[in-house]
Amino acid sequence: MFVLLALHLLIGVGIVASGDRLGRRAFAVAALAPLATVVWAITQADAVLDGRPVVVEVTWVEQLGLGLDLRLDAFGLAMVALVSGIGFLVCVYAVGYFSHPKQGTARLAGLMTLFAGAMLGVVMADHLLALFVAWELTSVTSYLLIGNDDRSPRARAAALQAILITGTGGLVMLVGIIAVGHTAGTYRISELLADPPSGGVISGGLVCILIGAFTKSAQAPFGSWLPGAMVAPTPISAYLHSATMVKAGVYLVARLSPIFATTGNWRLLVLVVGATTMIIGGLRALRQYDLKLLLAYGTVSQLGFLMLLFGTGQYQIAQAGVALLLAHGAFKAALFMVVGMVDHEVGTRDIRELHGFGSAWSPTLVVGVLGAASMAGLPPLFGFIAKEKALDGYVEHGDFIGSGAIVIVIVIGSILTFAYSARFVLGLFGVFGTDDADPRSRAAHAPSVLFLAPAAVLTVSTVAAGLAPVLVDRLVRASTLALQPGVTPSPVELWAGFNTALVLSLIVISTGLVLTAYRVPLGRLQRRASDAISWIPSAEQGFLACLRGMTDGSKRVTALVQNGSLPIYLAVIVTVAAVAPLIPAVSVFPSLPKLIDAPIQIPLGILVVVAALGAAVVRRRIAAALMLGAVGYGMAGLFIVQGAPDLALTQLVIETLATVLFVLVLRFLPTKWADRSPAIARPIRIGVSTLAGVSVFVMALVSSAARDDVAAPNISEEMIARSAPDAKGNNVVNVILVDFRGLDTLGEITVLLVAAVGAVALARTGRRRLIPGRREQGHARPDQGAGS
Amino acid sequence: MSQLVPLPIVLPLLGAALSVVFGRWHGFQRLVGVVCLSTSLVISIVLLVAADDTGFVVAQGGGWPAPIGISLVVDRLSAIMLVVSAIMLLAVLVYAIGQGEVERVHAGFHPTYLVLAAGVAASLLTGDLFNLFVSFEMMLAASYVLITMGGRAAQVRSGMTYVVISLVASTFFIIVLALIYSATGTINLADLSERIPELSGEVQLMFAIALLVVFGIKAGLFPLFFWLPDSYPTAPAPVTAIFAGLLTKVGVYAIIRTQTLMFPIDARPATLILVVAALTMTVGVFGAIAQDDVKRILSFHIVSQIGYMIFALGLFTVAGVAAAVFYTFNNIILKTNLLLVAGLVERRGGSSRLSEVGGMVRTAPLLGLLFALPALSLAGLPPFGGFVAKFAVFDAGAWSEQWVLVGVAAFVSLLTMYSMTKIWAGAFWGEREEEPSGRPEPGGRLGGPVLMVGSTAAVVLVGLAVMIWAAPLYAFTERAAVDLLDPSRYVEAVLGERP
Amino acid sequence: MSLLIAFVASMLVGCGTWLLLQRRLSRIIIGVGLLGHGANLLLLVSGGRRGTAPLIGVGDAADFADPLPQALALTAIVITFGVTTFLLALGFRAWQISNDDVVEDDVEDRYIARRAQIDREVADEIEAERAQAAEEDRR
Predict the structure, then answer these.
(1) B353-367 tens-digit pLDDT
(2) Does the predicted interface ipTM exceed a cut of 0.90?
(3) Taking CB atoms and an 8 Å cutoff, what residues of chain A touch B230?
(4) Of B39, B80, B1, which is closest to residue B477 (Cα–Cα)?
(5) Closest approach of A539 to chain C, Cα-based (Å)
């Protein structure tokens, strides 16, 4: 199986790397990967359908529980049929669709192959984290595919919206997966199925996982990205945003429901969300004029339907889910392809601009009508069988609270589905065409055979599966078994006898017909109703509000903390440095030590403090520099008193040098300065400085007093002891500097040299502008120094 | 083996000296730089293998036994940091040579860069608190010179902020050092590890927090990071890349080292670290979202990701510390990588502002790939190394049941992804909205000079290698974490068998 | 450590901080200098006792002042001096460019702070797109 995934990666990267050289032929190359997968799947099919899954166990980072275990069981096989089967057909279709390839068309093919590989990973993964890896890859490739026409701001916005919503879901899901995996002790789906865990953390984790699934499958209230994603070219929409990627959430729910349906609020959550989505999607679809958007909202509605079927944990209902999954994949992809052909040949998808087609279009129209009929659930098509099974499952086996309400939801949803299917067909035939538009569609070229073939293949399979359900019976039953081992799924039949489900179907069809007949007044009514509730924020507005809140909020926070002012930064840093360690220190403040060590310290101390205060307050630069020098000399005195003549000497030399340098530089600057700071600055400065001083004072005394707690002598004792005998030096300080701690001195010299190099380089950068009288010029040409 | 330990410090310093002496022969300077850093890399790898074999390789400076001399210690943490930083230093040097701007114009570039390399190595190797200060100063002094190289107005302005704040931080370091010595009578880390537990709990906590603040300024923790996004982006591209990759992470290294080695478990300010981590993550990423300039966006992300490392560290479990180490070295690679790409984008588009560049997926597709891989990894998207790192952090958080922080980290991760898409959509998609402020340079088929693109690609490959060999690498960091959480091994390795 | 030394050190740090928080680089540098003096003083006295110069043979080793902090302080002084010199050069360069030594606020940060309210965002783009679609729908 890894070979297949690698093949997808290889072909995908290869196509992307080849740039635009391949043009639309890139899709022919891209078709190889799904074709190989289909062939491989067929060879494995027999064993898999008999309940012997193909398993590959791979660990990635074992210590973290990160594994990439793959497992192809019957349900996985059904998904592979969708992913790779439809993938192959879409690739063939795309060759016809992109008859005039633009820049970036070949890239679409490459990205699509990469996506197909990722999607295969989702449906083959047996490890929740492996599933997550593939899941996120589908999000990323979807982002790149939606935004591939990168010059269109609309495409970019839609791509962003898609990845933000699915990305959020993905991250929430990751947290959920970790929570579940940690509690259960395994991330393997098959092991979870064998031994379902439970508990508070699990319930919380499951909600997180469900949010991930809902975002991916465009469930309310996270569905707003899917209609936007329709800016992508039609083959992409047909593949990602109808047949495969959006099914990932449904797939995950299908996998986990048998394990978790009765844990926490799983079932309730799935059913409420699924029901809402099914109804809202259907209502929205009814209002669309763009055929593609109509199908998109129809997809949303059907995804809600699938959630209702898979989320119960009842295998009889899940069986209907498997059937609907396959049926939907077949008819929806075909319908998208039809829309793509119309768009490609006529140049519009708006049903108000369609006025019927010439006779050469008949095969295309047949494909469209049959697809829509299957979508509407008309016998004897596959869609009908799936819906019958669903109704039957709920009516006969729905023994949990609320199952009756769900039956009503399904019926209403199906009526809406019938109505928008009818709208699709009528639109295709030009019933909505306005008089003033120019009747381009009549004159349009009919699509070529190759262009039509993939849709035709799908339609044939829809019809065949409807007339002879035995074709899919084994797959559906084995899939149900794979989801929930040990059950006995019923056969899939076209005629299941005269039962409640059939009655409900008849109600659906007749009501749907009425809705279609009275579509004009009903449409007006619907618009009025939607206007009336327009004050309720839509999910779309919610998303935008979040996005705006996030960007605005981060700007405010940033404008506040990152204000660009050095004094403010320093004030914050000093305050933190002074206060944070002070808090634990205060409680152990010791009794005060003796005031002085030697009397001479008093005048020296006074000198240092007075000079320091002077440096702080004088308003002449040179005077301040001299004050600093005075502090330094006072320090040297203190050093001598402390018993450090070497240090005092160094201090004197350095201080003298520093003062000279200061004076050299400062003479360029104005002698005085004006304080332009706001009034508030002064008390803040005083406060922070006091805090810093107090903090140092307290901490110094605390540390000094703490020396009594440590028994061991200062390490310098040993240095003194070994200085003369081992290092052959009598001046211990020197020995330490050049021998014991020579590395420090090496570093010190390096710092000095580097600083000198840097200082000289800086000084030389501006040398040319040091000509007297031309100083002002520097401001006008600040960048000139860059090249000197 | 222990004779090799000082070489990653001494070799670059020697090279720097040669580079200064033969400053007029530019080709020679280049040769010296590349040879020195390559040799350092090889030695670092040898040390890594040795350290993983025995746990520790110790060299006593000047042959004086600790604590008289300065101990240089290679353990698993310092070894992996050493290797990763050596790779980055070498790659960025090659990149700088390919770019040729600052590297060619300033004779001081090569020696300064080598001193930076020596400073980084010394900071990682030293087992002495004061020598850590000196090593930091070596690294910082070199960084001051590099960041202002060119002397443009923006550089001087931000250079002042950078130098002043670093200098203040260094002064704090000396103060804290003085306090620690006055309380314990030693500055050898292993020695401190034995003596500090004898102090009262409050004093221990005081020192732990004080050191956290000191290194927090260098690492860029909230609320001490404000200087960072202002100063890094103004430097020449290779300099920004190496700063972004290495300098802050050396600060993080110092935090990991000092907190685990010096302080017993109950004296570590774990809760404080976790709170600071959460704030660092969020405020950093908010800053990134607010920016419009590639280099600035990435600079804010440096901060945000430091939060992840500190979060994992603050758990003080084997899983947490392992995750912190893994995240840290992986982040060095990613950050260097992204800023190298940012440099290429700036060169190709004439600006690093998103409104002034665009459409590079068409004009320079290779740059798009070189950006996309590390960007996805940085955003923590699977299956890249960044995902493993992020997952390790989440996993460690889950073990410690820090669900709130895991949630914050997930949220930040989302925002990180958002700002990566912002760069992608701004620089690689669409058209540029405004004229670039600089002059775009044609990049040819590769999108830039061969050496620049090549070294960037090499770093991308290193990032991918982390993904492929995530398992052994993580196992390695786990071993490192076990060592870190049991300081007695370190102490024994440095001070010898104790009665 | 005597109370006086602790007081002097804390005064140095306090005055240094006051100067640090100013806008003139020359004052900031002086502030850094004062801070450094405070730190070095603390470092020097961290050995714990006053004593005679640690010269073997000159006095009794038991009376020596602790030599290690002296060595450390010496290193620290030289390093601080080196970096301060560089900072001076930077100030000099700043004066060349702007004829002043005021540390200006970061331009980019100010830019972000200013445009916080007026920025045109992706959200607006999406919303405009949707509004247009809704308009078409009504038609």
Answers:
(1) 888 888 888 888 889
(2) yes
(3) 562, 564
(4) B80
(5) 12
